[in-house]
Amino acid sequence: MKGFKISIERIGAICLIILMILGFSYIPAYATPDTTRTNAEVKFIVYPDGTVDISGRGNSTIETSNPSIELNAQFSKIVDKYNALVNAKVTVPPDQATTFPFNATTATVNMQCENNITTTTLDAALTLCDSFSGIDFNSFPFNSTDLSISGNYANQEFNGTITIHLIPGLTLGDIQVYFEGNLTQVTIDDSVRVYYNYTLPIEFSEINETTLNEFLLKLNTTIPGTGEDSLYNMTEGMLTCTTFNTTITPIDSNSADVYFWVIIEGDFTQIITNMLTRQGISLPNLYSFINATIYCIKNGEFSLSYSKSAKNVAFHLSFTQNATECLNVTAEFAPGMYPPELQPYIESLLNTTYASIYFSTETITYSNGQVTYNGNYTLSGDLNAQVNYAKNVYVDIMNATMPGPEWLINTIKGTDVDITNLKLDMNMNSTFQQWSMEGVKLAPPVNYINSTSFRLENFFNVTSTLPGGVPEPPASNETLKLTAQGGSNGTHTVTLHVDPTYPDGAPEPDEFLSENTMVWNNQSISKLKSLIFKIWEGKAESVYNPEAITTNNPYTIDAKQETNCILTINGISQSTTINIKNATAPDVALPGTYKLLGTCVQISSSETLATINATIRIYYTPEQLSALGLDENSLKIFYFDAASNKWVEVETQINTSEHYAQATINHLSLWALFGQPLTPLWQEWWFLATIAIIAIAVIVVAALLLKRKQQKPK
Q: CA distances (Å), 249 to each of 9, 197, 207, 252, 263, in order?
């Protein structure tokens, strides 16, 4: 299965959704009116390479008459393919949903994209009410006619049938119309049975043989050509009836069959263009766009039916398109819909493709005042490159229309976005809205202080300059909770530090949490520009509240991923940063026959600690034991005493089911797990005892057998 260029509208929609949700979360209270109450939380996890995981959630009280909206989207990546799931639901307000046509319509649209071909199917049904907009649906023709239209389309040519069935007793019998044509000509082959001296349920002269001939003669002399009452004149020259032949075949004295043969020529694309223009759709090159779009449709079928008894209209449409041709049409004509100064940006966006649809399905349904959308996309290529390119073009467009500071533009364009694990949720009704977003990773420009410290000044300062001079959140009717956390990449860890000397920087946090986390309430995001992020080798955690740490409320530093070690602090004398990292064993002899299991673990503190009471737990695997031939029950934790240049054993407990050794410690040092080799089987006391018992048993048995043999009579 080959990939193909993704529809730019879909990629654009995805990018705009991302920007929109990022806007909700990153600038949660942007320009909200005084009557609105907004509560938002934003969390930043900063990693050693300067990348930032961003997540957010919030809610607002609002007053709006808009429909209720639910939206959730989720991205993931498996091997070399991206998957995007998008689900949405729009609920029409009850006062509208219970009125016609919302309460009488059902519709389903299915779209599937595969092998560069998009297949679209539409099925819809409408049950007419008694009257609407001055139209009486209980009158003619709705109360006396069954109608069916069906047709096929392929390569700009179409054909089909129209069947109209009237109730008995009227002037006209069943009407059968066959049509075929292309974009410039249509041929109509029609037949209808006429009953003389009957009436129609509308104001019309009584039809007999004479009036029928007069009526047909009038049609034949006025509709063709270019006269005053011609089709040409009625359509302002767009259509011309070149042939209008009628044949009357008498059935009896009271009826006759009338056959029509009509050929109409003209520009049907222009007809569609004019119809759309009259509906207020006026776009540059609209005619060319419609014409090119029609050529993208390879084949299709359609049907329309109406039942007078049920007053039900049913419609079906199915067609296939070449996806690449559709994209090319969009790329050719879409720029003309924008002002000249923006057209180069739109052309660049439409003509640059990094991602492609491998397979997709989309379903849209409407019923009982509710529209649901379900989309499942499998994408190949580089989706993040597509998103970042679209982001940069969007920034250029905004800067061209509303110029911003150079540092701001450079920061936004210099921040790479990774949406591989993006999750979005949004729920909005007439009085309340809430949203959440997670799984976005940003790579902004980094301001390095030295090789182990940096700031993200411009990144956090982005919200200080909002369009239109809008004040940075939070305002008086807004609450904003900011959480900043130092992250770990498995080999290095980031800790956070507040710089009190930085002008207009972040104040002391309102909360200090575990895992290098600080929390501020009702502070602007731009305040975080002063934070210093320090890089540590291995695992590092800052202990902010030593007085809160007790045996009943221990502080655990999980460095299992980095060093196979977990440190549980039961008491500590002061605030500090604990650093746990792998280390090389000193070049000294190990005690006795002990061997090092794994690597040494260096545990240190940024401050000189008066006291610490902690438990160290070092994990190992059965495979490590087997490779070194160590006895699991002999495992001991040692620390290295630099003063004596020796390893010192501490009391150790072994958990053989979970495979760790544990010890209580009162200082920080270089720690290691040692074990002794397994004793050979022939050196085990129980083995020697068993051999001895077996030997004695053999001797005893042999002696008994010999004695019996000697006592046997000859």
A: 56, 17, 16, 9, 21
